[in-house]
């Protein structure tokens, strides 16, 4: 029996519910900073490799990196503030990997820029016309993932090849990445990049190489787009498909897992226009973030879901700062030992390659279609001036259709 009489009031502290811990701005600001730093350092090497492969010189590649940083920064700041959601944008890493595997484009760099514009237009149309989005979503998962895996394979082989050309710099990079994969996976690629930077710096100093400090000032190199059917079919369409299938669609799923419904039309319009605007400066494509989206949308960013948008806004603001370092990065990498950039890019893409291979071969019924798609995309062999990725997609769909009717 209680010792309190009916007229005795319980102490006030017994009636109060426990208060939720107060969270200041430090937590979402920190989450936003991590989102930007992880997103930038883990994939900028892929962007530079892709732009260079399709014809950009050092200044144009630096301009392209600057462009995607600025356009995605402005886009995520607008979307996160307008909708009060942690909507995180990113450059299309799978798209950059596609460019790296495509190589020289008929019509050169201006034709590649024209393809970037077309990809942006298609993204905008996807937001305004639901049927196009449904058509992309209807591409079988195993075919889309197999095409992506084939595109990634040559890039992920780069660290192995670089061991032969620059072992003194590349081997420590791989070892640091491996150790961090075990103890702090999130920071593995960042640590690998830091190791590569230190090793390259030592190599540059030891060989008395000259750094062009004037080239480290960020600048925008505008290119007039040129359109031809080879670049449209071989670059624009595959770039659009991998950006949608590997970034935008998974990005909405990641956000939904944290109970956020991404405003699809607005997101596609903003990222599509951002891609179009950034293309003449060399930017290939921006999109909804997929993996890094969780860094700003998870409870670790803020206990209150309504306040996590500040993390994405912070990430956008920091990307504007990181954009200023794009030219310096390109200048430094151009002087670094051969294969260092490719090593960091390859290590950054290993997890994506593993996930893509898993998706490509998951369905036993359609495994042959997946492996055919993978092999053609990995071959890098194009026809009629059109890259391997497009033909891999077509071949995979044909094989899947033919074999789906077998006994």
UniProtKB/TrEMBL annotation:
It holds the Pfam family BenE. The keyword Transmembrane helix applies. GO terms for molecular function: benzoate transmembrane transporter activity. Keywords: Membrane, Transmembrane, Transmembrane helix. It comes from the Bacteria. GO terms for cellular component: plasma membrane. This is Benzoate transporter. The chain crosses the membrane at residues 29-54, 61-83, 103-125, 132-155, 161-180, 187-207, 227-245, 266-291, 311-333, 340-362, 374-399. It comes from Nocardia ninae NBRC 108245.
